[in-house]
Design brief:
single chain; alpha+beta
Amino acid sequence: MPSSSLSALRGPAVLRLLALRQEQKLTTRHVRLMAQSLEVTERTVWRWLAAAERDESAAAEPGARAQTRDRFTVTPEVRRLLALWKGNVAAVHRELTARAARQSPPAAPPPSLPTLHRAIQRDLTPGERAGLAGGERAARKHDVFLARPRPWRNKVWETDHVQAPVLVEVDGKPRRPWITWFTDCTTNAITGVAVTPGHPSRESVLAALRSAVLREDPYGPFGGLPEKVRVDRGKDFLSRTVTAAFDLLDVTVEDLPAYTPHLKGTVEGLNRAVEGMFLAALPGYARQPRPGKRAFRPKDEVLLGFEDFTARLLDWTRWWNTEHRPSPLRGKTPLEAWQDDPTPLRDVPAADLWTFTLEDAGTRTLTTRGIRFRRRDYVGPWMTGQAGIQVRIRFMPHHDHRIEVYDAATGRYLGPADLADQATEEQLRAVRRARSARARRLKKDLEASQRERYAAATRAEAPQRLGALTTVQAEAELVQNADSDLAQLAMPDLIPHAAPPADWRTPASLAAPTTPGPPVRYPYGRDGASAPDGRDGRAAPPTTDEDGDTS
């Protein structure tokens, strides 16, 4: 029997022996049998009995260390030091020793290092020790979480972005794509997935949502509208376009608190499973153990193309849904669990779903040059004879090559409009190369301007900045900066401002740099009376109050 189980039996065994002693039925045979059962000596059992007769609390935990009033316990000061030193008990002991030595008169010596270790192990839970050493995330690993009951299908979905730790060739460059997917919490089925070569956006969420809701080929049989979707405060999931699409589809969005991945454990488990079950075996896996001190990618390693990677990921998603048997489903595949659920599904036509997941850009007037949108012209063959009507524009985010046009009055779909005078692929590649070169130059210039060198110090002294300039170099750089600063080149006093009217209350500091204008007579009051004239027949000069205002 394990030692922990034997320790748990000590208390009931000692209590039984005490009851036999009180009944005057206790014999040496009873003690011998109890010692053999607990794997201790007979003398140890007699000692437990004696301690239990002196103190009733000793009968609950026989053999435990006696608790005295002067036993050291963890104090708030020790807890703060543990948090400061990241759980390093030896560092905490050195700090306590140094503080005790600095006190006057000298305080009582701190506990020994073994005593401190025992107190921390006894008074702090594993979660508290992990939290003081590694923070809340480390402490959460020792918590107990309740499992949500599994309702009917499409009751709750969860969605998330995850960056694949696999390098994929995109336009000749290695990139790590992002995966956006929706999963059903009841059947563990992946209802929709979208792959983005670069950083995901609201367009990625809308594309994955369309593939999740539609049940026709090649998306089915999973799909339909869910009742609720859990998100983790990602700005893409809470964008105006995505939330508007969920509102139109009558789907409730549950915005979970930040840094709480355990509240959407289904999709987080999927993020971990896809790496260990699929991505780790692909070429270009970024977390593959490498020989040597530095992790590097072999030069002769052939990466997957983006199209090939997407095809393999979709095949793995199909395997997950139809062949994999997650343990929560008790031997069923997600497809079998989905088909065994009789809950009716809410379907949306593909055309309506496409409209709901587009971003609204307001109304425009269709002119003879087409539709002007974002300083570009969009045209379509259906526009012939339609110039002058009011239309409403909807578009997929970041898809600048095409917009969808609807009648502004009736909402009837008119047709798509493509970008006029669209640049060729060669021109686009040239523009991308020029932008990349400009970004590299700018990054290099910024790093050079912010790089400051200091002298190495071997003793405590003020930092010494390095980098000497001659007088000529300093003046030349100052002149160059002055020529590029528009604020210094401005000459606001070149043409003085005209003087304000005489009846304005103007501070003397603003009235001084103005030029006097021609005399103009203004009404003096609300009753239309003119301002009083001076001796020469002109308007009296304004007087200045003590606060600097003229009147």
